[in-house]
Amino acid sequence: MFQTVSATFYVHLPPKFMLSPSKGVEDHLNRMLLKFNERLGGVILSYSNVSFLSDRAEILYDSPFAHFSVQCDMLLFAPEVGSRIRGIINKQSPTHIGLLVSNLFNASIPKADIPESTFAFTSDDGSAAPAEAEETPSGHHARRRSRNTGAAALSGHWVHSASHTMLDVGTELEFVVTGVHRAHDFVNISGSLVDVDFVPSPAPIARAAAAPANLVTFGDEEEELVGEAAPIAKPTAAEGKGKRKRKLSETTDVAPAAAAEIAVEEGQPPAKKSKKAKAKKQAAE
Question: Rounded to an integer, what distance in angstroms lies between the CA atom of residue 108 and that of residue 129?
Fold first, then answer.
């Protein structure tokens, strides 16, 4: 799966690296990391032991680049068809098992390469995987109905029939490589569980995340919030007028003229005397 090869590369050094060609070579090799190299037949993971094959460089025609060759050792990820490798399960469905190899490369085991006599898919509600829809003139709609009716069965686990071991997410699983597919500059792996002796591995250990020291936990609604003051409600306009009237009614010993002045200060116009009160005053005089 992992190979170390000695490779030679022809470098075109840009003018900005003329005073430090080693940095230019490093920049050239760094651009090749984690990419599939067709000439080497694998994904380049790292390099070491870089050496110049000549102490001189060539400048061709009117090109400002310096041309020379370097040699280095490269670590490749190059799984071969038929080899057995291990991966960590990261996804499950009735149609396949998804794995992550070396915490970096995706692998998939389709249902056709999962022996029915050894493994069975069980949904979270305890039912078996839904049967595949048959091809009919309206096959597209039939498959859609099948997906809708069996939506609950899409969430579940593959189970080893003999040992009743559940293949949880995070479980390590060995499989046989059936194909290596290039996707852009990366690779995807397809595998099979046929003729693979399943050995139950220890259950994955779930690490509990440490809670921060200043974490505030909110409980039921009846519990009081600690360290948070309740907002003070502002009085409404009606409440403000009521308080103003009560203040004026409490000043019983104040003369009417003084009360009128207070009312003016509060923003209210003084009370007007009625015509009957004026007539009584004139009759008394």
Answer: 18
